[in-house]
Amino acid sequence: MNAAEKEKLLTEVVQRTVDRWCRDPKTTEEALFDTIYHERRRLEGEKKKSVAKRDRALYDRSYHQGLKASAGTQREIFRQIIQRFANEVVGHFDPRVYALSTRVIPVAMNLLLNSVSPLRLVETLQGANSLIDQLDLEGQTHTLKRLARQATIVLVPTHSSNLDSIMIGFGLYRLGLPPFTYGAGLNLFSNRLVGFFMHNLGAYKVDRRKQAAVYKDVLKTYAGCSMEMGFHNLFFPGGTRSRSGAVESSLKRGLLGMGLDAYVNNLRAKAKKPDVFIVPCTINYQLVLEAETLIADHLKAQGKSRFIIEDDEFSKPRRVFEFIQQLFSLHSRIHLMFGQALDVFGNQVDDQGVSHDHRGRPVDRTRYVLDSQGQPAVDAQRDREYTRELARSISESYHQNTVIKSTNLVSRAVFDLLKEHNPDLDLFRLLRTGGAEESFSLQEVYGRIERTLTTARSLAQQGQLKLDKTLADKDTVAVASEALAHLGSYHRKPALERRGDRLFHQDRKLLLYYQNRLSGFAWEG
Q1: Which residues lie closer than 8 Å to 60 by C-beta, 6 or more apart?
Q2: 3-class DSSP state for residue 342?
Q3: What is the DSSP letter of 367?
Q4: Integer Cα distance of 301 and 502 in angstroms
Q5: 72-79 contacts at long range (C-beta below 8 A, 24 or more positions apart)
Q6: What are the boundaries of each domain within the chain?
Q7: To the nearest 10°, the Cα dihedral for 320, 323, 328, 333?
Q8: Reduced to 3 states, what is the DSSP secondary structure of residue 157?
């Protein structure tokens, strides 16, 4: 996005938002003072005193001016606030920084990880043993690349870690695709170096502390306008990272609906490439960087978790380094699995850009949005139903394309044993005490792993999920060994630990987190 494109995008975002919120003097006044109220509330918790003082003065001034102002002046005050929000959000993509980072970051990462060995250092400089090479790109990659040339793509991945956007960025780069614009939480910009690269790799800021409705509308409008301008987008429809470790099934439909709006607006404008296609994607790790913090937050709140976590493992550079080092040393594969493309109504799209209904019949998608005069039009009630169908199709794709790892399967097997041996304990007592036995015999564990593995392979054959290679063709002992190597490597306390012929469950919260990846499937064992 060059300077002219950015200016055009900003102008369009501000104008559309103002038009929506300033339909008449009464609506304008209510929206203005509601926004000031929410911003003042937010500033009560602002940790940076200088920022709080500056912004509080601005909103105090806007409030007092607005009280005595005419309708036209109130509209202008509100427009300035909207402009401020839009300026905060906008990304600063720079092709030069993108080219530099995609060359330098993988090499720098490998230099750090391989510096313990001169031989491995030489191999790294020659391009061997790259951590990024441990990123497996699978699924409908050919279709994605083909469709990206004829339409605007909205990539919608699952969300486990703050590393997700980095991994996806390198995945898209390896596929030869241009960078996608995406929203990233404001906390991720707190590190100046990381923030600099994120700004210049297509990220725009999302401040989840801002609760004013107009701010959220600016975010949606920004995404929608960028789609109309042909910029590929990426966002996580699950919202924040999955605290429980489960694959997302309840998706936020606000941004999803912007794809439909962009499609209608493109048809109205007779755009050369009007189509907007949605591509689901799953990101699958053996280990998750922030697993300890996320599951603790999930259990603490039971669905009422903090809206944003600022003090997790991602905020500690040393923990990130340790995590990446463990993935490298264990040759741990990270799977990006791209699902079948969808149109904005939830129909599958083939690599020619043709939509097919649930029976496989080609459909003319333009007919979905025509009004009684045969013109493309927005219809709020109708479009909500379309977006609901799209969300359902994305959720189905997530489950079909989730790659189950040995850590997920072994955690499931052991957690099932814990529940069977302690039928009278509720979840929290089981997690806290571990029940009657602190360990299980390896023979019993292997038996349960074999049973769980049989079920997983059956589900994979039915196309309900995917299996990591270890689970697809290794025996029970190999599966258990790989899982134990991972579960005992990075986390502060091993989730499982083998001592002789016994297996000790050390951190049951981590077991719950990793086994939750299998929830939502037609599971029997």
Answers
A1: none
A2: strand
A3: G
A4: 34
A5: 74/25, 74/28, 74/29, 74/32, 75/18, 75/22, 75/25, 75/28, 77/32, 78/18, 78/21, 78/22, 78/28, 78/31, 78/32, 78/35, 79/14, 79/18, 79/22
A6: 3-89, 137-180+232-322+336-394, 403-518
A7: -110
A8: strand
At residue 100, what is the residue type? L
* Residue 158 neighbours by CB under 8 Å, 6+ apart: 164, 236, 238, 242, 247, 248, 281, 282, 283, 398, 402
Q: Could you identify the residue written with the tokens 């053996």?
A: 286
Between residues 315 and 171, which one has the greater pLDDT? 171
pTM of the predicted protein model: 0.86
Hey, CA dihedral for 294, 296, 302, 304, is it positive or negative? negative
Q: Which residue has the higher pLDDT, 311 or 491?
A: 491
Give the C-alpha separation, 482 to 330, whole Å: 9
- pLDDT at residue number 490: 86
Q: How far apart are CA 223 and CA 238, in angstroms?
A: 16
Stronger pLDDT, 434 or 304, i.e. the higher one: 434
Residue showing tokens 């072994």: 410
Confidence bin at 173 (pLDDT 50/70/90): confident
- Determine the Cα angle at 499 with ends 494 and 502, to 5°: 100
- Structure tokens given for 347: 């129909």
